[in-house]
TrEMBL record:
GO biological process: defense response to other organism
Name of the protein in its database record: Late embryogenesis abundant protein LEA-2 subgroup domain-containing protein
PANTHER family documented for this protein: LATE EMBRYOGENESIS ABUNDANT PROTEIN LEA-2 SUBGROUP DOMAIN-CONTAINING PROTEIN, OS05G0367900 PROTEIN
UniProtKB keywords: Membrane, Transmembrane, Transmembrane helix
Subcellular location: Membrane
Protein source organism: Solanum lycopersicum
Length: 225
């Protein structure tokens, strides 16, 4: 083998690769945006934690108290007068009721701070009465005796007057009594703020004639918190 004179030229050596750094991209973070993101994340976690705590407290209270709705009934009604004059649009009435309020709760008492009973006929109020305030204990039944007697202006349209004539012929009237209340709940030594439930009682009551009264069916009222 003959010796080679001069330099030996082998494969060419590639030039070193250059790295480019583009400003404004990559993992760099604007301080303001990072701070805002961390703040939002912290607020979200705090709110989420508060909701969980409130949910647990509500569940524990429900399991301990086991609250049940208070039940209202019209147990008896006596109607001795219910005359409507189309001449002066006046209703003459004499209605006495027995109503019961049943508190089925074992650990919740109720303060009835105010009770207003309203007599309604075909959507028109013909009388109202304020009843005495009282306290109702646990698993207790209280009785109310609202009485509506007198006369009042009631404006009835032609359709309502026709309904009245039909009920007068039958001797049975559809009457509604509403109870507007302000109550407070007592749980142990804690008393809640005032609550304003509304109770609606729709019932049919026969008119007494010659000292005889018809059969009245006990009616359960509707409670709206």
């Amino acid at each position: 083998m003959s010796n080679l004179n001069g330099a030996y030229y082998g494969p060419s050596i590639p030039p070193p690769s250059k790295s480019y750094h583009r400003h404004g991209r990559g993992s760099s973070c604007n301080p303001c945006s990072c701070l805002f993101g961390c703040l939002c994340n912290c607020i979200f976690r705090v709110i989420f934690t508060i909701l969980i705590v409130l949910g647990v407290i509500a569940l524990v209270l429900w399991l301990v108290l086991r609250p049940n709705k208070v039940k209202f009934y019209v147990t008896d009604a006596t109607l001795t007068q219910f005359d409507y004059s189309t001449t002066n649009n006046t209703l003459y009435y004499d209605l006495a009721l027995n109503m019961t309020i049943r508190n089925p709760n074992k650990r919740i008492g109720i303060y009835y701070d105010s009770i207003e009973a309203r007599g309604m006929y075909q959507g028109q109020r013909f009388a109202s009465q304020n009843l005495e305030r009282f306290y109702q204990g646990h698993k207790n039944t209280s009785i109310l005796h609202p009485v509506f007697k007198g006369q009042g202006l009631v404006l009835l349209g032609d359709r309502e007057k026709s309904n009245y004539s039909n009920e007068k012929n039958l001797g049975v009237y559809e009457i509604e009594v509403k109870l507007n209340m302000r109550i407070r709940l007592k749980i142990g030594w804690i008393k809640t703020h005032k609550i304003k439930p509304k109770i609606e009682c729709d019932f049919k009551v026969p008119l007494e004639s010659n000292g005889r009264s018809g059969n009245f069916e006990e009616t359960r009222c509707h409670l709206d918190w």
